[in-house]
Amino acid sequence: MKKVLVVCALLLVSFGLLFAAGGNETSTTAPALDAPVDRSQQLVIYSNSASAGRADWLTQRAAKEGFNVTIVDLGGAELANRLIAEKNNSLCDLVYGLNSLEYEKLKKEGLLLKYTPVWANEVDKALGDPEGYYHPIVVQPLVLMYKSDLADAPKDWTDLTDPKYKGAYNIFRLTGGTAKTILSSILVRYADPKGEYGISAEGWEVARKYIQNAYVENGQDYIGELISGVRPMSMMWGSGVIQNQQQRNYKFGIMSPAIGVPYVVEQVCIISKTKKAALALDFANWFGSKELQAEWSAKFGSIPAQPAALAQASDDIKAFMGKIHPQTIDWALVAANVDKWVEKVELEFMK
User: Fold this and answer.
1) For residue 232, what is the domain's CATH number?
2) CB 129 within 8 A of CB 294
C-alpha cells in the first residue's frame, strides 16, 4: 500500500513542481482561525465527487457539526469552466474532488486561496500542491471494471480498439475528469513531438477506435447493464468500484494493464473570491481530518490520502489496491495538451 502511494506521489510531485515557479501572485492566503466561526452561515461547495449519495451524506454529516452546506454536483471540466466563468461574481466558497490538472487552471486564473489545513503535515505533501493552494484527500485509481464471468475480457485499454468490443463498454463524457484522464493515459503512450498536439498518427488512430467502439453513458443504469451483461464493461474510479460492489453485493472483474492504470488525487481548495474564507478553512479542517476521511472511506469506498484513515480501510479496498499499480504518465505533456486532445476527439471522433 505504501509503495502504491509513494509511486503516485512521485508522479504528482513532478507535475506539481512544473507549475511551482509560476504560482499566481494575485491569490491571497486564508486567515488563521483565531476565534470560532459561525458555522450556521451557508457554505457553497462545488464538487465532481458528489454523486451516488455523497452530497446528501456529507450535507447531513456536516450539519451534525453545525455546518450549513450546499453542494453543487458538476463534472470536472464543467466545474473548472464554471468557476472561471463566475470569476467576477463567484458563487462558490470551496471545492473538493478535482485533480491537479483542473486545479492548476484555477490557480493560474487567481481563483485559489493559499491555506494550511490543520492536517497538512499528516498527509504526503508530494500528493498536493507545493505552494499550498490545494491539499489531498482521496487517491483514485481509474480502471475498467467488467462482469465477473466475462469471457475474453480485455487486458488493456488499447485492446478495446478490436471490433469485437464495439458497444460492449461504457465510457463517461469527456466533460468529466475520469474520461479525460483515461483518454490521456492512452494518448501519452504515443507521444511524438512532431505529431498533432504531441501525439503520433498511430496514437490518434487508437484513440479514434477506442472512442467509436464505446458507448457514451447517457443517464442509464450502466452498473445494472454491466451486471446483466447488456453492456458488460465500464470505466470507473476506485471508490466507485468499492461502493458499487457493496451496494450491489457483486464482485466486479478489474482490468489490470501491464503498463498500469492512471491515478489521480482528489484535492480540496478554497476559492479566492469567497467572503467566507474562515468558514471554508474551518470546513476543510474538519473534512480532511483522519476521522472524517475514515468515515468517508467506510461509507463510499474511497481510498484516503490520510495514512491514519487508510490504515482503517476495508478489506475490499486493500484487495482492490492489490490488483493494480499506477501508470507512469508525462503529466507535463497532458497539462499542455489535454484541452486540445479533448476538442479534437469531440469534433472528429464522437458521433
Assistant:
1) 3.40.190.10
2) no
